[in-house]
Specification:
homodimer, 224 residues, alpha+beta, Glutaredoxin, Glutathione S-transferase Yfyf (Class Pi), Chain A, domain 2, 2 domains, 4-stranded mixed beta sheet, globular, Omega/Tau-like (chains A, B), glutathione transferase activity (chains A, B), Glutathione-S-Trfase_C-like (chains A, B)
C-alpha cells in the first residue's frame, strides 16, 4: 500500500547517494515525485534547498528541504516509523547500526577514491579501498547477515553503492578492488547478492551504459 | 536528581570528543564512572570495546560498549529521553540539528588540521578552518541561537571543541584561526560564550597547562 505525501526528491540518475533515499522510500511504501537535477548546471531550487553543500539528494517534505542522505534516512525513519523499520527497535542494536552508518559516511569516499585518481595514487587508493572492504568483511558482517542487524536497514543503504555501483566505477576506471575470486570477501559478496535481490533494487531500472559513460567523463574531470 | 546506572565512560583528559559525552550525561543528570585511558598505550579493554577505531570515547552501558561520540550521543538521547532533550521534538527541526551534527563530523578534522601541520600546509589549513567557521557563522547560526535549535543540544556538543579547546590548540600551534576582533564571527563568539557559561561546562575542571603541554607533544608527533 502506498502512502501519499507532498514529497519531492531532487536527485541525479548516477548518484549512489540518491538511490539510498529512493530505496528507503520504496521500502517504506511512501510515494514521492522525483525531480532530476543537472548537477553540472545546478538549479536555483537545489541551491536554495541545500545552500551549504549544493548537492543531491534533497528531500522536500511539505515544502521543507532536508539535505544529506544520512540525515534524510533518519528523517524518513522518524516520519514513517510504522512501516518497515530502517533501524532495529533495541537502543543498543540501533547504536550498532548507526556505528556502521557513521563508518560508511566516513570511509565511503576513501573507498571509491580509486575512481577519482590515476597512476600511483590510484594504486594506493585501490589498496586503501580493499582495507576498508576488509573491515566490512571482518567486523561489519562478523556476526550478522546485514550491517543494520537482522534485516536490511539504514546501514545497508549507506553501503548500497557497493552492490549496485562499484562494478560500474571499476569498469569506468579500469581497476578492480573487489576481486574476482569467491574467496575474496565472501560475506560481503553474499550480502551484495542479498541486497541486489531485494524487490526494490530489482525493480530499479539502471541505465547502465549511460551511467558508465557518465562516470568515465566525471573521472576525466577528477584526474585532470 | 541523578539517575544511577551501570555506566562507564572510557575517556582521555585531552580529548574534545570525550567531553561531548561527559557534558551530554551531565545535562541528562545520568551518573557514570569515568575511566581514564592512556591513549599512547591503549588498554585491552579499549581494544576489545572499539576494535575498529581503537579510540575514545567508549560508553559501556550494562556491559555493552558503544563507540563513536556522535553515535553515543544518539544512544544517550534514546536511552534517557525524558530528561533535557538533546534533539528537538519536531522531526524537521531534528533533521536540521542532525544536518549540523553531520557537518561537524565531516568538517571538524579539517577545521583543526592547522594544529597538525606546519609551514605552508598550516597556512592553507588555517585558511580552510576560517572558511568552515564562516559557514557556521553564516548558515549554522543564521536564524537561531544554537546549532541544535532553541537550546543547547547534540549539534552544539559536536562543536563544543570550538568554545572549549580551540584556544588551547591555537596556543599549542602558535596560530590564531578565530581572530581577535569581536567583528570576526560575532554570532559564533556569542554562541561560544553561551556554551562556556553553561553550568556543566563551568563545573568542568580543565587542567589547562597539562592539556596545552600534551597538545604540543601531540603536535610534534603529527608534524614530524
Amino acid at each position: 500500500m502506498e502512502i501519499k505525501e507532498d514529497l519531492k526528491l531532487i536527485g541525479s540518475f548516477a548518484s549512489p547517494f540518491v538511490y539510498r533515499i529512493i530505496w528507503a522510500l520504496n521500502l517504506k511504501g511512501v510515494e514521492f515525485e522525483y525531480v532530476e537535477e543537472d548537477i553540472l548546471n545546478k538549479s536555483q531550487m537545489l541551491l536554495k534547498c541545500n545552500p551549504v553543500h549544493k548537492k543531491v539528494p534533497v528531500l522536500i517534505h511539505r515544502g521543507k528541504p532536508i539535505a544529506e542522505s544520512a540525515v534524510i534516512l533518519e528523517y524518513i525513519e522518524e516520519t514513517w516509523p510504522g512501516v518497515r523499520c530502517l533501524l532495529p527497535k533495541d537502543p543498543y542494536e540501533r547504536s550498532a547500526a548507526r556505528f556502521w552508518v557513521k563508518f560508511g559516511e566516513d570511509k565511503n569516499r576513501s573507498c571509491y577514491m580509486f575512481f577519482m585518481t590515476a597512476g600511483e595514487k590510484q594504486v594506493k587508493a585501490a589498496r586503501e579501498a580493499r582495507e576498508i572492504l576488509s573491515i566490512l568483511e571482518s567486523e561489519g558482517l562478523k556476526d550478522k547477515k546485514y550491517f543494520g542487524g537482522s534485516e536490511v536497514g539504514m546501514a545497508d543503504l549507506i553501503f548500497s553503492w557497493i552492490p549496485c555501483f562499484l562494478d560500474m566505477l571499476e569498469e569506468a576506471s579500469g581497476v578492480k578492488v573487489m576481486g574476482e575470486s569467491s574467496e575474496d570477501f565472501p560475506r560481503l559478496k553474499a550480502w551484495c547478492q542479498e541486497f541486489r535481490d531485494m524487490d526494490v533494487v530489482k525493480n530499479t531500472k539502471f541505465h547502465r551504459q549511460e551511467m558508465v559513460a557518465y562516470y568515465k567523463r566525471r573521472r576525466l574531470m577528477f584526474i585532470s
